[in-house]
Amino acid sequence: MVSMRIRSVYPLIKHISSTQPSVSFNFVANGRSLATGSFQRKKRTRGSRRTPDWETQSWEERLADTVTPLWRLSYEEQLQLKQEQQHKILLALSAQLNQFASLSSSENKLTFPLLPIVPSPVQNGYRNKSTFSINKGVDGNPKTVGFYIGTGKSGNIVCIHGDHLLNMPPKHIMVASHYEKFIRLSPLPPCIVFHDGGHWREITVRTNSAGNTMAIVYFHPQSLTAEDISMHKAALVEYFIHGPGAACQLDSLYFQESTMTRCTHQESPFQLLYGEPHIHEEALGFKFRISADSFFQVNRGAAEALYRTVEKLNRNCGAGVLLDVCCGTGAIGISLSPKVEKVIGIELVEQAVEDAKHNAAINGVQNCEFISGKAEVILPDLIPNLNTGRGLMAVVNPSRSGLHYRVIRALRNHPAIRRLIYISCKPEGEATRNFRELCCSSDKHRKLTGEPFKLTVAVPVDMFPHTPHCELVLVFER
C-alpha cells in the first residue's frame, strides 16, 4: 500500500534529473575555477577592505559577503586582520582583568604575550558540517535550499544557493541541490515559519576526510498521521538511495520530526532511514565516531592544529588528572590522554558522551572517563573527591555563552588547579564574564574564595578561513 502511494504521489521521481533546472552558480577564485563559469572573484587591492556597493553586487556576492566576509582578501591578509582583531580584543580584556584584580595596566600594551595566529592547513572547502535552510529564492520559489540573507522583520529574506562559497565542499552542495530537487517534487509545502504550516525544513550534511557522507533531514509533522509521514520518509529514501539522489552516495540518511527550531535526540529521536548510524573521522592518529547531533570541529585540519596547540600549552604541568569540560565527543581529552594519568570529560549532550566512550574504547584508551550532565551540577561535587597528588589541570571548551557561574566557582576555588586552558570562539562576548571571575580579587560575597588566576598567554587558531572568526586559546595560571 505504501509503495503504491509513493508512486502516485511522486510520479516524476525517476525523471527529475532531466526535468529540473540546474541550481549551480559559478565562481572563480585566485585564478582557479571552483565551478565552470564566469562569476569572478573581485580581489581587493592590498590594504583596501571595502566591499563593493551592495546594490551593484550579484546575489552570489551578497551571500559571500554575509557568510564569508573575508573572501576577497588573500589568506595572508586574512591572518593579519585576525591577529590585529584578537590584539584589540585582548587589550580591552587585559584592562578589564587588571581593573578587577586591582592592578595597574597600560591601555596600549598587553601584560601577557599574544602568539602568532596558527593558520588553517586547508583554506577552501574545509567545512565537514553544513546546514542548509529553505526559503524563497531569487526567482520567488519557496522551495529553494541554500543560505538566506535579509531578515523576517524587514520582509526581505532571499535564499541563495551556496555553491560559490569558498568554505563549502562540493559534496555538501551536491546533497543540498538534490534535496531541493526532491522537495520540489514533493506535494508537501516547506516549513518556513512554523505557525504558517508546511513540513520540509533544513538539511544538515556531515562528511569526513575519507569521503563518507551523512545527511539529516528535519521535518515538521504538523497534523500529518504517522502513516502519511512514513510515506514521505519512504519517498525520501527512494530518491536518495535509488533515484537521482543516489549520485550523492550517502552513507547515512537521518530524519528528525520536530515542532521546535532545535531539539536533541532525547527530545525527538533521530530516525535512521538508511545506512550506517555513524561516520568516523581521524585526528592526530585517533579515530572518532560522529553521530547525527554530536559536536566535532567543522575544520578537521585546523582542529588538529588546535589540539596540538593545547598539548603544547599543557606541557610541564604534571601528569595528573585532566578535566575536560564541555568535552563533546572526547577529541581533546583523548588526544591528550597519553600525556596524563587520567582524563575526566564532562558533556551535556548524552549522545556525544556515548560517542566519547566509544572513541576511547576503539582507540584503546583506558584512562578516560566521560560523564553526561550539566557541568555546573557535576563539577562542584566531583572536584573535591579527585586524587590530585600528581596535579590537576583543566581544559574548557564551552559554547559562545561561556561557562555557568557555578563551574567557574568550582574551578577557581580548588587549589590543586594551577593551570586552566580556556578555548573561546568569542572572547569578547559572554566569555568575558568567565575571565573576570577567574582573575578578580577574592570575593566572599560571590563565593570566589580561591586564589585568582592570571592570564599568561594567548594563541589564536584559525578554524574558519574567509570569515572573521577564529578560536582563541587562553592560558590562565596561578
TrEMBL record:
UniProt-recorded Gene Ontology molecular function terms: RNA binding; tRNA (uracil(54)-C5)-methyltransferase activity, S-adenosyl methionine-dependent
EC identifiers of the protein: 2.1.1.35
Record field: catalytic activity: uridine(54) in tRNA + S-adenosyl-L-methionine = 5-methyluridine(54) in tRNA + S-adenosyl-L-homocysteine + H(+)
Alphabetic keyword roster: Methyltransferase, S-adenosyl-L-methionine, Transferase
Positions of the catalytic residues: C425
GO biological process: methylation; RNA processing
Gene3D superfamilies (alphabetical): 2.40.50.1070, Vaccinia Virus protein VP39
Binding positions (S-adenosyl-L-methionine): Q297, E347, N397
Family per similarity comment: Belongs to the class I-like SAM-binding methyltransferase superfamily. RNA M5U methyltransferase family.
Protein name: tRNA (uracil(54)-C(5))-methyltransferase
UniProt source species: Chanos chanos
